[in-house]
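*** Query protein ***
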Amino acid sequence: MTNATAPKEHSGDVRLSGISKTYGSFTAVHPLDLTVPQGSFFALLGASGCGKTTTLRMIAGLEEPSTGTVCLGEQDVTALPPYKRPVNTVFQSYALFPHLDIFENVAFGLRRRGIKSVKQQVGDMLDLVQLGEQARKKPHQLSGGQQQRVAVARALINHPKVLLLDEPLGALDLKLRRQMQLELKRIQTEVGITFVHVTHDQEEAMTMADTVAVMNGGRVEQQGAPADLYENPRTTFVANFLGTSNFIEAEVAEAGGDDVVLKAGGGKLTLPKARCTAPATTGGRVLVGVRPEKISLTHADDAGAIPDGRNRITGRIADSSFIGVSTQYVVNSPVCEAFEVYAQNIERDPRLVPGADVVLHWNPAHTFGLDADQDAEAGVEKVEEDA
């Protein structure tokens, strides 16, 4: 993805070096180094108050860093006001001009710069966001998703090197939000401009971004491709914030070779050493993690049919919820209370009901290991906190 108008290969890079932000005694962003490559779709993901929006505002010039520098391409922009930076920002509130039609909303930035001939550029931009036929409508005549696309078009027509998106889909309902995730990704791919996107929505970040930086308490906990973060979390916060994880506290029995053998509740579990970020020393403790969709559930009467070599624990179904594509089970086990299992509804076993004794089993390769000193509940979203 390259932008033909970009004068230099790295003109759309965003490089943050040691930037931080403090308000009195409160540190909103601890010193961090971050590089967003030219032409990438980069997401800053985290819960409310984690520092992601403050970081974005420092890139935009809307907040002054307490320490560090902000570079866009080869240019140090730390001291530049927002209007002199080659960036544009799209906010959750679209801030469209209600008295102007869609064409004039998009043309506004060009006209303000004294550009007379705008018809071709505005037409091309409205075609990009698939709103060419809506050009003469007023904002209130459009849906929320259409208004958001107008806001994106208005920002992109100025040919910024970087487009900053601050919770841009937060006001949309779930179905429309999912459609707009794909729309924004398509637009970014077509224009090849660097997008930096702030969101608290894990699915949104993983759907759209090439790279995700998970923020917590003003720091980047982990950064990488969405699939890598999900499959190989390095902290319990990342494991819990990106989806759901089950954790079993276990003791290292053997640590030779490519696998770590662990003891938990009288049984043994196997963990690939390459997927263990904790020190794997005999007698040491490890938090064994496994995602709910990686686990199979077998009634205890059929335990003999489970293939050898799989990790297994016993338990009793405490609850089950049919949600269409899958059934979600909660299983109480001697090694882990409220173990979650997501089973696809292909061939449902009618015996798998609350009260049934079961064996949970999974491929050892799907297991990851974390430092047992971490809080197993870190990153678990509390519904009441968002109310």
